Amino acid sequence: MVSRTGPKRSESIRRAVLDAADDLLVERGFSGVTMEGIAVRAGVAKQTIYRWWKSKVDILLDTLVDDAEQPLAWRPGSSPAAPEEELTDQLGRVAAFLQEPAGQVLLSLIGHAQLDPETAAKLRDGFLREQRERDLAGLGALLARHTGRPVDERLTGRLLDAALGPIFHQALVLGRPADPATLATTARLVLDAAGREPVPGAGRSSDAE
Amino acid sequence: MVSRTGPKRSESIRRAVLDAADDLLVERGFSGVTMEGIAVRAGVAKQTIYRWWKSKVDILLDTLVDDAEQPLAWRPGSSPAAPEEELTDQLGRVAAFLQEPAGQVLLSLIGHAQLDPETAAKLRDGFLREQRERDLAGLGALLARHTGRPVDERLTGRLLDAALGPIFHQALVLGRPADPATLATTARLVLDAAGREPVPGAGRSSDAE
Amino acid sequence: MVSRTGPKRSESIRRAVLDAADDLLVERGFSGVTMEGIAVRAGVAKQTIYRWWKSKVDILLDTLVDDAEQPLAWRPGSSPAAPEEELTDQLGRVAAFLQEPAGQVLLSLIGHAQLDPETAAKLRDGFLREQRERDLAGLGALLARHTGRPVDERLTGRLLDAALGPIFHQALVLGRPADPATLATTARLVLDAAGREPVPGAGRSSDAE
Amino acid sequence: MVSRTGPKRSESIRRAVLDAADDLLVERGFSGVTMEGIAVRAGVAKQTIYRWWKSKVDILLDTLVDDAEQPLAWRPGSSPAAPEEELTDQLGRVAAFLQEPAGQVLLSLIGHAQLDPETAAKLRDGFLREQRERDLAGLGALLARHTGRPVDERLTGRLLDAALGPIFHQALVLGRPADPATLATTARLVLDAAGREPVPGAGRSSDAE
DNA sequence: CGCTAATCGAGACGGTACGTCTAGTCTTGGC
DNA sequence: GCCAAGACTAGACGTACCGTCTCGATTAGCG
Question: Which residues of chain A have pLDDT under 70?
């Protein structure tokens, strides 16, 4: 196939579509985001959108990649001696992120993933998998500094669930931001559990999977 | 105005509608549940459904009340001496419940609540609030038996989040059932934290065990 | 309304239903007449209406019998010497009748008869057939007085069509009352034709059916 | 803004819809014509119909324009010397037309016009007005040939009512086709009346409006 | 510089479900 | 047993988006 080129994909259209979707989500909620509405708002023909995205979910996933990675990054601790404060801060950033527009996109997509397996697959194989890897690395390093020894990855995974679980539980199930007291309690719980855990290879039966 | 009576609401129709909605959710997913589809499946006229329910969300909320309360109930411990096992069992029942049809209804409604504020309000003011009260009572009693003294209700609330958070996090965010190891780790974490907490008004807890 | 007469049909309900139907037709037009609306307006249950009438058409047919016969009656001529004026007057009464509520009922029913064969059958076998008999008798007597000899009934029928046709044509097709000039022209036409017609039994071929 | 064009309205769909409506009217009567039924029968989406027509009445009106004009046209007389035969033929064509599918459409619409003022307005301002103009021109020319002088237009109008009235009266009120004898009688009546009328300007008072 | 392939706006089209409406039947209980 | 109240089945209504498609108008680079 000889690539006789024509005009190239318009970057301004891509941005206009992503922005329109984002705006509509904030203004009218997830069901207020429609392909037709995005097209009108972005000043673009429907077919132009369908040429580049399969669905509104794909559009929102694109906005997520642009907007969510940085706010959820693990910051290197300013004071290496205070892992509990560092963990509490990180959990606070996660909780705060969920209140912002980009966080609303994430919550909406997680919500929609409960209703549509295809969304679930795309979300989990894409953004969520990568974010979990970053979280595992960040928490693993923090725990290692805290305990003075490397931490088993499966244990890190369970502690990550213990750390993030309450935040997402409150956001998704109770529909409210996690309060600071919960974050502090959670951080201490996780660090205590990590300190009490045996050295890898000498695990107690209850840790076995 | 004298209340001249007419025919009464048909209970068999009510059940047929709830069952049809439940079946459709399991077979075709949330978007496969439509008012029209429910009407056909239940062998009932659409108008009859609209007479009693405003939307498919309202129908699913009704199925929850019918079908979710019992499986999520806290069972009185057969052996008062083993609260850890009792808590693990309870968490196991919650995790198992989420795999069943009624649990899928709950997950779908929580998902839809992220997309629609009205659904969120109904779900949280209805089933979720009552279920949380039952959970607080159940966990509170268990912790009291475990620690030998009454437990502060706000603390119970945070520990309930710590207990349920990982389960819902895995179900909603990771899209998989919570594994037994996570449940056991979680149960121990919660009980340890409760044991370490100070008696109300009796000084701060130390880091040491 | 204390109609404690037991299993007898309530005459007051019959009147209330007919009046309600009539009023609704005038106020909201034919499509504004619904069984439900009649029931509400008459302060009567739907089933009570269905017990006695099959449809709103049957109700309107009942009102027609009550209200249309008298205004369409042929009046004995005050002055026997002026059949043209007498005929013009009669046609004027018909035209005027069609402007009144009862006339609107008739026009509506004729209209509906074009759309529904059952209505057509009931209307033509009932009111219209009887009215045509009265018209044939009235016009026949008038023509006999005018020509001085009995007039063939088939010819009377054709002349009746010639007399009424323009009135109904203007009402039904043009949607306006027949103007006096048309009525006068029509009356003269009919009388001239009757005068020119041969004695029964010596008819020209064009009169044969 | 340059006017970018899109696809044009499909003529084949337009015909399919008109045909479907026509067929349904003949097969199932006016109430058997539904937007939904037309859509199914024409193999077309409902929304496509609503894009171009407001109601089934509008569709039927369109079929009239397509199908009724030609059969109701006044044919130039082959033999200028026989206006009576020519008029009888024309009236015969009208009567025959009312028996055909397109004529049933017209009768149905006239019927519905009695029940719905909007239908009445559309029908009279559209097809009926234009048809009346054609009829006035046709009858006017015929009468001029018959009498040897131009005929007053208002008189032509009244004679047109006298000619068409009986036909529509029999069709709409009596529900049967006009018989040949009636047509012949009517034609002769009309021509006689035209011949007897005075020259314009010397009219009798009864012709004045 | 013109050919050609792509992008793009506009919008017609077949679908599916929506939530509403009225008709006509059936059920219950008061009188 | 008559009646009011109203639940119920049935099915058309007109609307909203969906995702696909066709139609020209408009760009770019390749030759």
Answer: 1-4, 77-81, 197-209
- Which of B108, B167, B207 is facing A114, going by the closest CB pair? B108
* Digit-coded pLDDT (tens) for B59-110: 999 999 999 999 999 987 666 668 889 999 999 999 999 999 999 999 999 9
pLDDT at C201 over 60: no
Identify the architecture of domain B11-56 in CATH: Orthogonal Bundle (1.10)
**Average pLDDT in chain D:** 89
Residue B199 pLDDT greater than 60, yes or no? no
**Residue A209: what pLDDT?**
37
**CATH hierarchy code of domain A11-53:** 1.10.10.60
CA angle D57, D60, D65 (to 5 degrees): 125
Residue with the bigger pLDDT between B46 and B208: it is B46
Q: Which nucleotide is nearest to C1 (CA to C1')?
A: F3
What's at B172, amino acid-wise? L
Give the closest-approach CA distance of C49 to chain D in angstroms. 22
Q: Is the pLDDT of residue D193 over 60?
A: yes
Instruction: Spell out which residues of A between 139 and 178 contact strand F, using CB within 7 Å.
Output: none
Confidence (pLDDT) at A9: 80
**Distance from the D200 Cα atom to the nearest Cα atom in chain C, whole angstroms:** 16
Q: Which phi and psi angles does C155 have, rounded to 5°?
A: -65, -45
* Chain D residues touching C189 at Cβ < 8 A: 162, 189, 193
Q: What is the DSSP letter of A30?
A: G
Distance CA D166, CA D172 (A): 10
Angle between helix axes D153-168 and D83-99 (nearest 10 degrees) is 50
User: How confident is the prediction for chain C on average, in pLDDT?
Assistant: 85
pLDDT of residue D63: 96
Q: Kindly report, as residue ranges, where domains of CATH 1.10.10.60 are found in chain B.
A: 11-56
| D207 contacts chain C (CB < 8 A) | yes
Give CA separation, A83 vs A133, A190, C185, D27, D55, in Å.
20, 11, 110, 83, 72
Amino acid identity, position C78: S
CATH superfamily of D68-198: Tetracycline Repressor, domain 2 (1.10.357.10)
Nearest to A181 by CA among A196, A170, A193: A170
Q: Which nucleotide is nearest to C42 (CA to C1')?
A: F4
CATH class of C66-200: mainly alpha
pLDDT tens-digit profile of D132-160?
A: 999 999 999 999 989 988 999 999 999 99
C126: DSSP letter: I
Q: Say if C136 is an interface residue toward chain D (CB within 8 Å).
A: no
Chain B residues 153-192 within an 8 A CB cutoff of chain A: 154, 158-159, 161-162, 164-170, 172-175, 179-182, 184-186, 188-189, 192
Closest approach of chain D CAs to the CA of C175, in angstroms?
8
- CA–C1' B21–E29 (A): 33
User: Any contact of B with A, at least 3 CB pairs below 8 A?
Assistant: yes
- pLDDT number for residue A3: 57
Q: Which nucleotides of E are covered by protein (CB under 7 A)?
A: 4-31
